[in-house]
Amino acid sequence: MGLQLASIIITSIFTVCKDVKDCISLAADSIGLQKIPSFEVAMHDHTDWIKATQELFRPVEVSDGLWVVPEWTTPPDLQATNIILNPGLAFGTGEHPTTKLCLLLLRDLIRGGELFLDYGTGSGVLAIAALKFGAAFSVGFDIDPQAITSAQYNATLNNIGHEKLLLNLVPGKGILPSADFSSSMDIGQTTYEAEVLNKRGKYDIVVANILLNPLLELADQIVSYAKPGATVALSGIISEQIPRILERYSQYLDNITVSKMDDWACISGLKK
After folding, report:
1. Which residue, of 22, 67, 86, 221, has the fewest CB within 10 Å?
2. Vertex 56, ends 236 and 58: CA angle to 5°?
3. Do residues 220 and 249 touch, judged by C-beta distance below 8 A?
4. Across-strand partners of 117?
5. Angle at Cα 94 formed by Cα 74 and Cα 145, nearest 5°?
6. Selected residue with higher pLDDT from 194 and 222
7. pLDDT, tens digit (0-9, with 9 covering 90-100), for 101-154
8. Residues 222-232: tens digit of each pLDDT
9. Neighbours of 42 (CB within 10 A)
10. CA gap 251, 229 in Å, rounded
11. SS3 at position 215
12. Helical packing angle, 125-133 and 97-109, nearest 10°
């Protein structure tokens, strides 16, 4: 009997202004594919899929007493820690294993009063969760303006103000925040906000739930925001990619641990 290879089909959604081939090329490169997979493009009314996506997003019980709840749904447990969310076009509904792993890690780590950095914030779910768990202040970075808009909206849904959560868009294609934040500052940003966003070596917890290649390429930047002894957590990777992350980050982190869920992984350690 011959070996039969399984076919994997991925459906993704793009705005009409996006270069689909370029996006697929970047995605393929991020997971080490040697060539771009074959693909087809079909045009649809964007209002239909947004509504359909919302209908599929239901309350997620991450663990006992911890729920991620869509804005349009009543929380199943009003006494629980409920993170109210409308992800819009951003990543992070609480359903994906990497998000769950990061949420569980934050719940165990945060004791109260921490300064938290969400490196690639998406919907803002982790930055918001950190505050609900007791962190004193959260900062979220992302390269996607729609993610920043989504995270700001979700902060409002959870009654979290600007004094507790700062969200910053860093311009550039295929990169996350760099050492120079001056070019990414909004005109209305205060000196205090600029100082917070530029803090290196000051965060008690830094989480980067992104993709393998950015995690590898930006390791020194990601770790630079954490203070010595702080926890740095890395996710958005599958189990077979763990050795590459361990090799890259072992120079920066001690006491490295790995947690897994459905073949996805979260790696955390203490900054040396």
Report:
1. 22
2. 80
3. no
4. 139, 206
5. 100
6. 222
7. 999 999 999 999 999 999 999 999 999 999 999 999 999 999 888 889 999 999
8. 999 999 999 99
9. 5
10. 14
11. helix
12. 20
CB 217 within 8 A of CB 260: no
Please name the residue that has the structure tokens 């996607």. 144
Torsional sign, CA 210, 212, 213, 219: positive
Distances (CA, A) of 34 to 28, 29, 210, 245: 8, 7, 21, 20
What one-character-per-residue DSSP string does 67-127 give?
EEEETTS--S-TTSEEEEE--TTSS--S-SHHHHHHHHHHHHH--SS-EEEEES-TTSHHH
238/111 Cα distance (integer angstroms): 29
Q: Find how far residue 147's CA is from the centre of its chain.
A: 10
Q: Which residue has the tokens 């970047």?
A: 26
CA distance linking residue 212 with residue 236, whole number of Å: 7
Please enumerate in sequence order all residues whose Cβ is within 8 A of that of 120, keeping only pairs 6 or more positions apart, or say none.
141, 142, 143, 176, 208, 209, 210, 214, 236
Separation between Cα atoms, residue 168 and residue 179, nearest integer Å = 13
Give the strand pairing for 137-142 and 66-70: unpaired
Tokens standing for residue 163? 């004094």
Single-letter amino acid code for the residue at 99: T
Place of tokens 């399984």: 6
Burial class (CB in 10 A: 0-12, 13-18, 19+), 240: exposed
- DSSP-assigned beta bridge partners for residue 228: none
Residue 259: what residue type?
S
Contact 28, 41 (CB under 8 A): no
pLDDT at 46: 60
Signed CA dihedral, 165, 61, 65, 70: sign only? positive
Tokens of 47: 């209002």
